[in-house]
Write a structure and sequence with these properties.
Elements: E1 2-7, E2 13-18, E3 38-43, E4 49-51, E5 61-65, E6 71-78, E7 81-88, E8 95-96, E9 103-109, E10 115-121, E11 128-133, E12 140-141, E13 155-162, E14 169-176, E15 184-192, H1 214-219, E16 223-227, H2 237-241, H3 250-263, E17 268-278, H4 280-291, E18 297-301, H5 307-313, H6 318-323, H7 332-337, E19 351-357, H8 365-376, E20 381-387, H9 396-413, E21 421-422
Parallel strand pairs: 15-16, 15-17, 17-18, 18-19, 19-20
Antiparallel strand pairs: 1-2, 2-3, 3-4, 5-6, 6-7, 7-8, 9-10, 10-11, 11-12, 13-14, 14-16, 15-21
Length: about 425
């Protein structure tokens, strides 16, 4: 249950979100934000319970009640974007309230209950505060806290492809830098984010809590690709549940198929590819290191190398055990098969390892398990450790150190911007 509860204006109902509702099918990953959830109501007069219609993604976050008490507003993700929905108490289908593609945060009603205030951003616009009346979506910007610093010549495109097993329609964002040369074939960096309930539409100029600055990479002449993979939020519960006992398999194939879709656009150099990942994306980077020699270099950020030793060192084992179908002794072979460390002989790509110490969920020992065989076998590798609490570099100067280490590595082991190929 999400305890972000709201009492109706007339004081008769308590609204809340929960994964425990009568008509739910038996899903294999019983974790909040991966399981199906609904907004449900409890009568404060007789304790009777009822649940409202689902949002398309079935992962709503309750915002509040409409003043007339006949509906509630919720936020949920739709594809790569966040949306706000109105859900009626009369059982009707959830109605999308917002329009466009954006990333919402901190949505709430104003004191009068006749408007929604929220923070919104997208790839090209930094986060600002907005307000809209609740009778129709008419957003008005009410803050001016940031100055956009993106070059005007960036090209942002959406690419779509079919998963290898034909189960899902996938999409991703490709961002191309400016080039004075015609028919430029850009070196391509693939960015694999951590598992998150938030959309990918974070402002490109933001210095976040991970050692990555997309804007600096674009200014150096790299094209960037942010692919969608099964298990992520925004595409429904079946898409999230498809990660069940499929770590490193279906999601890896989704990413590789997406790269091929980008290459088909004939704007990137297929011989100059680099892969970056953080958190669960770091695990996928480590897995990719063992599955293909397609990349010039791979960056593993706070990634898992050994699923079994991860369980013994993490403070949060629930996610891994849930998606793997239970504790490791239930299926030791599967846990071993999905651990990158089991394929040491396949590790031949120059690899940068970046870890926070002590990590909140993933410890630096996971990186050390990768560094030892890579270094011993003579593969170009470097391990950078950033000493601070948490699983991310939540202090700007530490994030900047990590960004500089990443860029120094790319200058050594990835194509230099001055050597970008042009199509003949």
């Amino acid at each position: 249950m999400n305890l972000n509860m709201r009492i109706s204006p007339d004081g008769k109902w308590l609204a809340y979100t929960t994964t425990n509702f009568p008509e739910k099918s038996q899903n294999p990953i019983p974790l909040y934000q991966m399981d199906a959830s609904r907004v449900c109501l409890i009568s404060l007069q007789d304790n009777q319970k009822r649940c409202l219609a689902p949002t398309p993604n079935e992962n709503p976050e309750l915002i509040g009640w409409k003043k007339d008490g006949k509906s509630v507003f919720v936020a949920d993700q739709e594809g790569i974007s966040d949306q706000i929905y109105e859900v009626s108490l009369n059982g009707e289908k959830a109605t999308k309230f917002t329009q466009g593609e954006q990333s919402f945060q901190l949505a709430q009603f104003n004191a009068a209950g006749d408007a929604i205030i929220y923070s919104s951003q997208n790839l090209q616009t930094p986060a600002e505060g907005y307000i809209t009346p609740i009778d129709r979506f008419l957003p008005e910007k009410i803050t001016s806290l940031s100055t956009p610093n993106l070059p005007s010549h960036l090209s942002i495109e959406k690419v779509k492809w079919k998963s290898k097993d034909k189960k899902f329609d996938l999409e991703g964002i490709v961002i191309y830098p400016n080039s004075s040369q015609e028919k430029t074939l850009f070196p391509l960096m693939i960015l694999l984010k951590d598992y998150s309930s938030q959309s990918t539409l974070t402002y490109l100029g933001k210095l976040g809590s991970i050692p990555l600055s997309p804007l600096r990479l674009l200014r150096k002449g790299y094209a960037l690709f942010i692919p969608t993979r099964r298990g992520e939020n925004g595409y429904g519960v079946q898409f999230r549940q498809a990660l069940y006992m499929e770590l490193g398999k279906g999601d890896f194939e989704d990413i590789m198929a997406g790269i091929e879709a980008v290459i088909e656009g004939k704007k990137v150099d297929p011989t100059n590819l680099a892969l970056w990942g953080w958190g669960y994306g770091g695990y996928l980077s480590a897995w990719t290191l063992t599955q293909t020699a397609r990349f010039k270099t791979i960056i593993v950020g706070q990634g898992i190398a050994n699923l079994i030793s991860q369980i013994g060192t993490t403070t949060k084992p629930d996610f891994l055990e849930a998606v793997m179908g239970g504790p490791f002794w239930k299926d030791l072979k599967l846990w071993d098969e999905r651990s990158p460390i089991s394929y040491v002989k396949n590790m031949n790509t120059p690899t940068l390892l970046q870890y926070v110490d002590p990590g909140e969920v993933i410890q630096k020992s996971q990186g050390e398990e990768l560094y030892f065989p890579l270094n011993t076998r003579g593969v170009a590798t470097e391990m950078d450790t950033y000493v601070m609490d948490g699983n991310e570099l939540n202090k700007p100067h530490m994030a900047l150190f990590g960004i500089q280490d990443l860029e120094n590595w790319l200058e050594k082991y990835f194509v230099a911007p001055s050597s970008i190929k042009t199509e003949k």
